[in-house]
Write a structure and sequence with these properties.
The structure holds 2 protein chains of 2 kinds. Chain A is an all-beta fold. Chain A is built from no helices and 11 strands. The chains are: A mainly beta, B mainly beta.
């Protein structure tokens, strides 16, 4: 059974700092890995999707990497802003067509002005 | 496009009552799924569907029923609500992009309390 772990569970940083969120998974037979953002009381918003054949994806100040062999992914956020404060969830896609997602418990990020 | 729409946003039930959580998407996505989110547990897959008329169980299906009669709708039924089903429920949909995996789009959630 796939298990996804996110470290740390919570993180507080001053505005402007660069930061890294970590995600690890136990079964390397994945189709893709997604990073989501969840604001309090809201749904999930997809940030980045990395296919199993890719090493990284970038969107603006966000960069996600994937190392399938070691079962790890990182989400790098450059020049953090208070608006980045949210919970970040890592999810591994498996099953036919990678439809089934296994989620980590998330990292709650607070960016202090 | 409205995206993925879930109704109701909040619901309080008594133990033993039944209800249906509604989910609709207007993006013509073939895949839809239901997750529940509990504190300290993360999101867990309840049921999913890869197209109209096709459904299957996820990690935590007990106590829930689904059907998929149209591409747009994927309702989740609680036949006899239990306090253990108190949770936030999310519906998601996705499509297949040739060679590019599946981005999943989530609704805003339904907060359910079973007393």
């Amino acid at each position: 059974k796939q298990e996804v772990t996110q470290i740390p569970a919570a993180l507080s940083v001053p505005e402007g700092e660069n930061l890294v969120l970590n995600c690890s998974f136990t079964d390397s037979a994945i189709y893709n890995l997604q990073w989501f953002r969840q604001d309090p009381g809201k749904g999930l918003t997809s940030l980045l999707l990395i296919q199993s054949s890719q090493r990284e994806q970038t969107s603006g100040r966000l960069n996600a990497s994937l190392d399938k062999s070691s079962g790890r992914s990182t989400l790098y956020i450059a020049a953090s802003q208070p608006g980045d404060s949210a919970t970040y969830l890592c999810a591994v896609g498996s099953g036919a067509g990678s439809y089934q997602l296994t989620f980590g418990k998330g990292t709650k990020l607070s960016v202090i002005p | 496009n409205a995206g993925v729409t879930q109704t109701p946003k909040f619901q309080v039930l008594k133990t033993g009552q039944s209800m249906t959580l509604q989910c609709a998407q207007d993006m013509n996505h073939e895949y839809m799924s239901w997750y529940r989110q509990d504190p300290g547990m993360g999101l867990r897959l309840i049921h999913y569907s890869v197209g109209a008329g096709i459904t299957d169980q996820g990690e935590v299906p007990n106590g829930y029923n689904v059907s998929r009669s149209t591409t747009e709708d994927f309702p989740l039924r609680l036949l006899s609500a239990a306090p253990s089903q108190t949770s936030v429920y999310f519906c998601a949909s996705s499509y297949s992009r040739q060679g590019r995996g599946n981005i999943q789009y989530f609704g805003a959630g339904t907060r359910l309390s079973v007393l």
